[in-house]
Structures are given as C-alpha cells and as structure tokens.
Predict the structure.
Amino acid sequence: MGSRLRGKNILLVGAAGNLGPSWAGGMLEEGATVFALGLGVNDCNPLNELAEKFPNNLLMGIWDVTTQASDADISEIFPALAGARDLHGMVYNAGIDSPAGAGGPQALSFDHATWDTIFQVNVFGFANIVSAVRPLLAETSSIVAVGSMYGLVSPRLDLYSHYFDGKGSIKHPAYGASKAALLALAKQFGTHLAPRGTRVNTLTLGGVEGNQDSEFQAKFALENPQNRMVPISEALGAMTYLLSDDSLSMTAQNLIVDGGYTAW
C-alpha cells in the first residue's frame, strides 16, 4: 500500500472500460477514494472485486459520457461530492477503440456514423465531463486524459498484416484522429484552467500489454526500442504522478509511456 494519493477523491470516467479497473486498483492502492463512473460499472467483475477489497473507498455510478452532464448530475450520482469542492482529480478513461485485427482493410472504408460515434465519446465526452466537474474541483486538482500513441503516429501496416488471412487490418482512422484532438483539447484546458489551480495533462500510452494475439505482440516488440510491450503495472506510476502533488507544476503536457515506440 502506498500513500501518494491518500486523502484524495478521484473521479474515474470509463471505469469499466479497457484499463479502467487497473487505474482504479492503482489509485486505491495509493490511498485514494475512487468514484467510478461509466456504463457497465456494476457488472464489471474486476471493479466488484476491488469494491470488496476497498469497501469504503470505491463508489460506482452509471453515466453515458455522450449525455450532457452538470455538477448537479455528478453530485446526485455521488452524494458524497454534493455541495463541496472536494474532487481532487479526474481521469478520463472513456473511449472507443477496437481490438487489434478487428478493423477493415482500407483507411477509407469506414462510414460517417462510426466516425461520429468515436468522436462523441473520445473527444466531446471529455469536454462534457470536464465542464460538469469543474464546480466540484478542489482548489488544487488534476485532470488526466488517457491518450494513445496513435494520436501521435500512424498505425504501422505491418503490425496488422497477418489478420484476415494476410489481407491485413487497420485501426479505425477516427481513433487516432480523436486521440490527437483529445491531446489538443487537454492542452487548451490545461492552460485555461491553470489560474484556478486545476492542471490538465494527457497520459499517452503505446503498446500496453493486454489480450492481443501472440503474433501482434511479437511484431510490436520487434518495433519497440525496449523489445517488449508495456505492462500496465508500469503505467500506473505515471498515472499516480500526474494525480499526485508531485506534478503540481505540470499542466498542458503529454506524458508518453510507450517503451520509446514513438521516438523512432
């Protein structure tokens, strides 16, 4: 058990999504009280296991980030936050992505509706929730947007060439575009909210080890300076840093944890 986040109340948005339970566990282990918000939180087994381990420090509430929210809505979901500026941090983990190999073969083969859906969650949802929580933020607070290396570089075709019987697959182009937009939005929020004591940063991840197939993992490792994928446990320290008082002088910045992949 650590103590770098002891006494801090942190809203985790998209808590049941990819990496959400890992962020929650890391924050709880560092002493934070976590308000887990999003769709499917009550049916997420890893979150329920954390709730049993930290019964007084993990609260869960349901909200769709594409629905316009206010501070009153957040306070109604989590009465402990009602009427007080007691929220010390917010992590925006909500996002739409697709597993490796689930995309189409051509960058221009995706329809308008899917582009719109991805931007509604990955970009507009962030602006929506930041606006809602602003009145609840403590005098010193931290907002972290979870980004992606594909907001910085294009997906390499060879990483996905083994899918569809060798025809290949790509990430939806709206995913990288939305993460680039998220990065720009966090920079602007980070500068504009700085005078009121709120810092806003992006934690950009790349090649985080998950449920990718073995061939993809092997390919990525070959293209990574560290010759491996990134364990989520090693990204938790970066998240803790951005949420803790260690990063009081850091805002409108992008912290990259990708094993050096985007440095090539």
In short: The helical segments are 20-29, 45-53, 71-77, 112-133, 173-192, 214-223, 232-243. The chain has seven helices and seven strands. Strands lie at 9-13, 33-37, 58-61, 87-92, 137-148, 198-205, 254-257. The mean pLDDT is 93.
